[in-house]
Amino acid sequence: MSTALVSLLQIKTDDVESPQERYQRVIDQLSVIAQGTDDKKPDLIILPELWHGGAFNIEQSVSLATTFPGPISEDICDIAATNGVWIHAGSFIENLNGSLFNTSLLVDGQGNISATYKKIHLFGFSEGESKHLTNGEEIVCVVTPLGMTALTTCYDLRFPELFRKINEKGATSILMTSGWPVPRIEHWNILTKARAIENQSIFIACNGVGTNGGTNLGGNSVVIDAWGKVLNETTTIEQVINVEIDLQNVNQVREKLPVLADRIIK
Q: Is 50 part of a structural domain of the chain?
């Protein structure tokens, strides 16, 4: 396979919509997206961070804490298995033996949980995630239809040392689920491109839209190739973004400009 089709579902998460209504609405959308069209169905689908309860409505998200395996993962696994599609379901608050984590969920095309990633960098300083959650410690990379793929979440974007470690683990693509706000969306636009360029990796970042916890999410979900080229039109509305990715891109860029071999400080 020389290309892969990735679908980003840029979900609107508004506090005016109940989590239960939104969950069913998104699951129904996900089922339709996973079926694809007569021409093509996606190889991988990705959703935003904490779309169930809201990235900035952390108390509500905590109240919806789940387990893996659990009811949410069962729904995602069923859709993946039925359609033979990999699904990065975004992230959820996971209750693991009484500790709460912001955990992203990746399911393979057979409907098995391929990986979970507990967000390492928690946002909020003394409030928000930092107040309620425990940070993860493990870097997660797994082979997907995109090759060796790393899982990251939102605030991780600001910490380039994490992405160097990911690069050292052999990742050629990076998935980021996010709830990034409007006031800092220019940072998002710059840093997603920077992470792709400096690590010569495909960067796929799915952000939310809508207003939760009094904060407007900025959308601008993006797919960036290893040269730093943005492969889709960015928007600030709920929609599905489909992007065909050239799986040879990373090797071509790394051969053309082998900067990673010139690293001195490690």
A: yes
